[in-house]
Amino acid sequence: MISDGILFEADDGRLGAAAFNVTSTRKWAVSNVGLFADRQNQQYVENTRGQVRGTNAPALYQTSRLSPGSLRYYGLGLENGLYTIRLFFAEAGFHDRNAQSWESLGRRVFDVYIQGRRRLRDFDISKEAGGVLRAIPRIFTINVTENHLEIHLFWAGKGTSDTPEEGYYGSSISAISVVPNFRVNGTPSGNPNMSRTALITGVTVSVAALALILIVAIIYVKRKREEDDEELLAGISPRPNTLSYSEIKAATEDFSPSNKLGEGGFGAVYKGTLSDGRVVAVKQLSVASNQGKEQFVTEIATISGVQHRNLVKLHGCCIGGNRRLLVYEYLVNKSLDQALWGKNKLHLDWSARFNICLSTARGLAYLHEESSPRIVHRDVKASNILLDGALCPKISDFGLAKLYDDKKTHITSRAAGTIGYLAPEYAMRGHLSEKVDVFGFGVVALEILSGRPNSDIRLKEGRIYLLEWVWTLYEKKQLLSLLDLTLSKFDEDQALRVIGVALLCLQASPSMRPSMSRVVAMLVGDIEVSTVKTKPSYLTYGDYDDITGCTITNEESQTSIVSYSSSSGIE
Description:
Elements: E1 2-3, E2 6-7, E3 19-22, E4 28-33, E5 45-47, E6 63-67, E7 70-76, E8 81-89, E9 110-114, E10 117-123, H1 125-129, E11 136-144, E12 148-154, E13 171-173, E14 175-180, E15 183-184, E16 187-188, H2 196-209, H3 211-234, H4 245-251, E17 260-264, E18 267-273, E19 279-284, H5 293-304, E20 314-318, E21 325-329, H6 336-341, H7 350-369, E22 385-387, E23 393-395, E24 409-411, E25 417-418, H8 424-429, E26 431-433, H9 435-450, H10 466-475, H11 492-505, H12 516-524, E27 538-540, E28 551-552, H13 554-560, E29 563-565
């Protein structure tokens, strides 16, 4: 359709979870990631139920694209320069806030990034528009420097998930327009009669006319960047291994969707094969755009020096232009959560499970007490533990949240982690220490033994939350009932030892949790497992199912956590 002289294309209405599509005119691409938890109908398009007010182009708002996690739009083949970006929003799925019903309590809250920079934080469409079915455009002036535009809508666990219906949340957008603020092929871009088609045609003609000049300019800029990068790397010790962007593009087949392994809090991950035959996992850091190049390289050099058999090995990085990519070893058995309860879960016997617990503990003990600098992971969970071909666990994403200094604890205004694994003192007060990782390990250990995630609403009441259930079994002296039913054989003494250690790791007071080196000693039987004195501490989100995980910040934890269960409180 055409509105105000701008041609709007429709994206693919069939686009679902973990999908990528380029429009027929190849002017736009869209990438979507995520499943709506607990929702039977995975609906990614919202049809507007009524007339949208406050606009002279209501047709733009007839449908909206929904995403439960990460939604990216890419403008392709743009001429570099300043553009006016208009994002068109209207809330069509939630009820009016003034309605006297529980359904009016629904809230949609998400962030919007343009070119890697957050432009809208905690954006609530109906709140900003003053009600539902009200148009609210947001306008930005953006400088395009590498011939493409990226608009990223990201839901980070805020708002509501069960209102007006279960599993309904995430970002929503109705339309996007991109108009240059400069002349294209002699035509002023501000001319309202200039359509999106004319813009692309103009760029193509201009590029053809100036091809020779552009080639020379590209070669000059590329050489200048390479010289600057070499000068920067010369001052870094130890110098990290670097790969060119062209090497990584070739390894991942230009970041082909078929090579995409997944997307986490730090960015998308792709499988690739380097020219020397090494199979790698390439992580595109979405959070690194705010860092300077020198700061980024210095941190990566530090992380590269942190090596242990139970930590994922970092092969190198790419710092070309504004890109921030990390190249890790590829582990064939993927993540622990997929091995335990994924679609293609593995058969893990008792020996494998006990070794995963013990080896993970050794990796964390190394980060806390032996590496330099010491590192607190902040997000220890099953999806951040990867398994190699021999089922040896390796901890991933360590050092990416923030490098840890020599102080034992510090207060942070931003808690980064996953509901179900977060220690309460960190989630609720921003109190960070290595004991935050100890708490996360306790949850993971129980998941390994039971073969189930820390929360699962498909189970009977009293068993939904793993930590609540294990305490009930502890009080009844039936701890071995926790073990996965698929385990035909197990070592009873080792099993009780792991459960006892896990309960110690889950104590409300950080001072009552053991260090990870002490955890290792208890698991191998060098010292006795201490007596558990209080009920585990845990946070719940009502009927929240944490199979996929979600990140939260300290600010939202103050308002989002439904209940905090502990018999002794937080220290």
